[in-house]
Amino acid sequence: MDRIWMALDARARAVAERPISALFEDPGRAAAFSAREGDMLFDYSKTNIDAETLELLLNLAEAAGLAACREAMFTGAKINETEGRAVLHTALRAPGGSVQVDGRDVMPELRATLARMRTFAEMVRGGQFAGQGGAITDVVNIGIGGSDLGPAMAVQALAPFHDGPRCHFVSNVDGAHVADTLKRLNPETTLVIVASKTFTTIETMTNAETARDWMAARVADPAAQFVALSSAQERTQAFGIPAGRVFGFEDWVGGRYSVWGPIGLSLMLAIGPDRFDDFLSGGAVMDAHFRSAPPRGNLPVLLALVGLWHAQVLGHPTRAVLPYDQRLARLPAYLQQLEMESNGKGVTMQGTRPLRPTGPVVWGEPGTNGQHAFYQLLHQGTQVVPCEFLVAARGHEPDLAHHHRLLLANALAQSAALMRGRSLDEARAIAARAGHAGDELERQARHRVFAGNRPSTMLIYPQLTPQVLGRIVALYEHRVFVEGVILGINSFDQWGVELGKELATALAPVIAGTDPGAGLDGSTRALLQFVAEFESRPQEEGRFR
Ligand SMILES: O=P(O)(O)OC[C@H]1O[C@H](O)[C@H](O)[C@@H](O)[C@@H]1O
């Protein structure tokens, strides 16, 4: 593999001065450097990848043994080696067949749980399962990380399909989050979902207890309006949620990959079980494509190779995800966990230091909003940020089709502008038209120059439906997998979140004043002292309770 990486480095040097736009002298470029999965188009022609580079990138995937690793994942091998676990979120959306883990077919139990979720969702939506003050009007999902971002992102994404109770999401341990959410709700008609794979996450357990107290103040049996989604059934029982309202899953469903199973219950309640099935079937469609499409027509493989070219070969340290789709506003946050928790690693599977940078920083906001905020840097800043645009060919508001046309025009224009840029001569003409002359014209012109040659990709999907959302999410999941395999890292553990948690646990009693906090560093001690000064001041009575 070293040889291929080095050939890619050489390739990067060779094309460094070549503008991306020059590649379009080939009239077949857009067709050759794009691929389809059904009616979804992934266009990466506005990158500096040419046929020779693509070949090298494909070699990289082959040399990493991608095909075998992919099969290992789909068939239940324990590829999450540091935790000794299989990685089987794909089983949650598999249309059929059997998947063996430790010699046992896991599919019957998955199907049984999905059927229980369906029955429960139908009862809530139909009013047969009611709150103590009538039919459930509101659902509060309490969870964090993978137990929040997936369902929160998907519920917002699929707003046009909502015909169930309103869904709210509480994640932050900051009391403001739970307080602001619950104060708008009626406990007698609210269903609380406690979503936590481990059922030990301090934020979630703290918020769940607060919600239970809130409920207890108004209804006779607060536990009756609680549901748990977890792989730790004993702990859910200890919390007081009866087994009938616990939807379990196995430890081979990673938190950030868990929206497809019980963690997706809020989504199922919002859009109904049939549309939830469509979401699953979208994921399964992308799985089948990933497993069978040849690499050069394989969307997850190509998305990954483009990512590797930009981050690991060209050294761009971040990438922006820019959905021109307001309902995908939470997609960047969702992808931050998916990509950065999966591939933000500093050690290879073998326990050595990676030779290349690993996962880049992922960030973004929906267009067109971002255009009026950070696109200045994208166009003229001194660092190159590869951009990933997403846009639907059609919106959901036929009477607002003119809005959608403007949205599309902006998405396409931004990606073209990033590539094209504006030359000094063009800038001079603009400055002259603005009335500048002489030295001032020259100075003004330089501020109006766009270097251009900034790479971007475009994912166009027909319309944001449950099925299409399933395909998009699975596309990104597999992209992360491919990048992880090629980088030789474990994309499925997250040891990097442990230390902060441990220190927070140790600091809590120090802040409460029950532990002197011996051994704290000087900065932490000074910060604590500053906070303590406020402790003694009188405070306005809290209004939450
Ligand atoms: O679902 P839970 O067990 O509550 O975990 C919630 C989240 O917390 C952890 O810190 C992990 O970093 C995440 O991967 C996980 O999704």
From TrEMBL:
<dbReference type="InterPro" id="IPR035476">
    <property type="entry name" value="SIS_PGI_1"/>
</dbReference>
<dbReference type="InterPro" id="IPR001672">
    <property type="entry name" value="G6P_Isomerase"/>
</dbReference>
<keyword id="KW-0324">Glycolysis</keyword>
<dbReference type="GO" id="GO:0005829">
    <property type="term" value="C:cytosol"/>
</dbReference>
<dbReference type="InterPro" id="IPR046348">
    <property type="entry name" value="SIS_dom_sf"/>
</dbReference>
<keyword id="KW-0963">Cytoplasm</keyword>
<feature type="active site" description="Proton donor">
    <location>
        <position position="341"/>
    </location>
</feature>
<dbReference type="GO" id="GO:0051156">
    <property type="term" value="P:glucose 6-phosphate metabolic process"/>
</dbReference>
<keyword id="KW-0413">Isomerase</keyword>
<comment type="similarity">
    <text>Belongs to the GPI family.</text>
</comment>
<dbReference type="GO" id="GO:0006094">
    <property type="term" value="P:gluconeogenesis"/>
</dbReference>
<comment type="pathway">
    <text>Carbohydrate degradation; glycolysis; D-glyceraldehyde 3-phosphate and glycerone phosphate from D-glucose: step 2/4.</text>
</comment>
<dbReference type="GO" id="GO:0097367">
    <property type="term" value="F:carbohydrate derivative binding"/>
</dbReference>
<dbReference type="InterPro" id="IPR018189">
    <property type="entry name" value="Phosphoglucose_isomerase_CS"/>
</dbReference>
<comment type="function">
    <text>Catalyzes the reversible isomerization of glucose-6-phosphate to fructose-6-phosphate.</text>
</comment>
<protein>
    <recommendedName>
        <fullName>Glucose-6-phosphate isomerase</fullName>
        <ecNumber>5.3.1.9</ecNumber>
    </recommendedName>
</protein>
<feature type="active site">
    <location>
        <position position="372"/>
    </location>
</feature>
<dbReference type="GO" id="GO:0006096">
    <property type="term" value="P:glycolytic process"/>
</dbReference>
<dbReference type="GO" id="GO:0048029">
    <property type="term" value="F:monosaccharide binding"/>
</dbReference>
<dbReference type="GO" id="GO:0004347">
    <property type="term" value="F:glucose-6-phosphate isomerase activity"/>
</dbReference>
<keyword id="KW-0312">Gluconeogenesis</keyword>
<dbReference type="InterPro" id="IPR035482">
    <property type="entry name" value="SIS_PGI_2"/>
</dbReference>
<feature type="active site">
    <location>
        <position position="501"/>
    </location>
</feature>
<dbReference type="Pfam" id="PF00342">
    <property type="entry name" value="PGI"/>
</dbReference>
<dbReference type="InterPro" id="IPR023096">
    <property type="entry name" value="G6P_Isomerase_C"/>
</dbReference>
<comment type="pathway">
    <text>Carbohydrate biosynthesis; gluconeogenesis.</text>
</comment>
